[in-house]
Design a protein that fits this description.
- The structure is a single chain.
- The protein is mainly alpha-helical and 121 residues long.
- The chain is rod-shaped, with a radius of gyration of 45 Å.
Length: 121
């Protein structure tokens, strides 16, 4: 075998080996991209699942809070008070004087009997 033949044999072996390695490398890159894509997809699904679980937990807590404190979450409707008294209601001067001074005023002065007593001369 001459040097030229040996060099040519080595070149052929090197080229064929290099081509095989290039094909393997390209296949490995494709496989890595597929694995990366699958991992990203699984991570997105996991994030979605965690988000849904968190929302469900928050809704459960909110629902339990509404059940425990029903009156706290009851809506208060803003509408005018009904005007049932057609006559003007007068409170006694004594009760108003006590309110002005910041003193305790008995509830009697605002009952029907107390108001009727004020209206009678």
């Amino acid at each position: 075998v001459t040097n030229a033949q040996a060099a040519e044999a080595l070149r052929v072996v090197w080229v064929s080996t290099n081509d095989e390695l290039c094909i393997q490398w390209c296949q490995q890159v494709i496989d890595d991209q597929l694995v990366q894509t699958e991992q990203e997809h699984l991570a997105e699904e996991e994030a979605t699942r965690i988000q849904q679980a968190r929302q469900l937990e928050e809704e459960t807590v909110r629902s339990d809070e509404r059940k425990k404190n029903h009156f706290k979450h009851t809506e208060i409707l803003m509408r005018p008070h009904p005007d049932t008294n057609e006559d003007e209601t007068f409170v006694s001067d004594f009760a108003l004087w006590k309110i002005d001074k910041g003193l305790f005023v008995e509830l009697y002065y605002w009952t029907n009997d107390g108001l009727a007593e004020t209206l009678t001369p």
